[in-house]
Amino acid sequence: MKTLVLLSGGMDSVTALYHTHRSESNDAVVGLSFDYGSKHNAREIPYAAEHCRKLGIEHRVVKLDVMSQWFQSNLLKSGGEIPEGHYQESSMKQTVVPFRNGIMLSIAAGMAESMELEGIVIAAHSGDHAIYPDCREPFMQAMGEAIREGTYARLEILAPFLSMTKKEILQEGLKLGVDYSLTWSCYKGQLIQCGKCGTCVERREAFQLAGVEDPTVYEETPDLPNAPK
Amino acid sequence: MKTLVLLSGGMDSVTALYHTHRSESNDAVVGLSFDYGSKHNAREIPYAAEHCRKLGIEHRVVKLDVMSQWFQSNLLKSGGEIPEGHYQESSMKQTVVPFRNGIMLSIAAGMAESMELEGIVIAAHSGDHAIYPDCREPFMQAMGEAIREGTYARLEILAPFLSMTKKEILQEGLKLGVDYSLTWSCYKGQLIQCGKCGTCVERREAFQLAGVEDPTVYEETPDLPNAPK
Known about the structure:
2 copies of one chain form a homodimer.
Chain A: E1 2-6, H1 11-22, E2 27-35, H2 41-55, E3 58-63, H3 66-70, H4 100-114, E4 119-121, H5 137-150, E5 156-158, H6 166-176, H7 198-210
Parallel strand pairs in A: 1-2, 1-4, 2-3, 4-5
Helix pairs in contact in A: 1-2, 1-6, 6-7
């Protein structure tokens, strides 16, 4: 299946790019990034471009101004401060960009239909489910149906990591040869990843759980907080 | 229910704006237009703004460059010529913008969630079903489910005209006092509506079927072609 891969430049989507590229049944024709006004877009998108270049895959960046202009989220440059703590804590809801996956998947569907592709790959995983309604199975099922019904090509959504943990994605990526020093997670978008925001914590935890050395340079690495019960 | 109304500035969506505004159970809080690079955006959006101003409703315009840049459609300034003939002819497929309704509904969902609204109104109708997969009931059902599942507020899609014909929408709008001379249909985007492209034909046919005088100024008004069998 010829696919478009949603590619932020973080661990999960970069792993999905390699996973699709190396797959026998699927082919990654284009990697698609969105410059939607988040604090960390400018840090993560260069890594998305770099992995596409390495693998010989076309990379596209869609710029969206609508979120900065009218959406409420602390993930955006227009929003407040990024909270620190465990990724699954309810305080992390401040970083949710409303219906972001729906918007990215929809634009990807229109682009993929225009390119005569057959599928869209998204790297949503089980750890996202706690706070992101648009990462959960019922959303993915319905959105998949909407995209099938709303396109002539009856495009498919592929979410290969939907029931995997971030640790498992990391283990898969290491087998595929992903260089995780060339991926970006930190929501703060500073020059160096902070080590303390929700997604830095999630990233550090994945390496710790996998028992693998983390090649990332962090500003600070205090003890990891526990996941909420 | 507090709603956002998708508002192109054409007959159907302007009627939907009045229908929602005058409804006892719903309220139109914002009218949302998309400047997505079509040939006729520059003609229709001023009418969208005008009706919002008349009714005291906030009007927003989202600019999207992605379609002009990468989508295939003759509706776009980047595409080829607009075909003439009946709206439901297969040649009109050249004017389909892939997954446009999915994209507009998704962005509307994120914006509505940020504004703490409860619903999104879309004016898709039965005449659209022939060529637009993203106007049909199975798409609307699935997209509605995706938006409910993917938002904290469990936002609803309202499609009050989904099983109505354009003639019936026109009759509804006339009861509501819509001035159709202040709406734009023509896909060509000239200074005067052409009278011959698919959507001009559909517009003229609706007035003819309703037995109502058409206040629109057209460049030409040749006999209307028959609907395909």
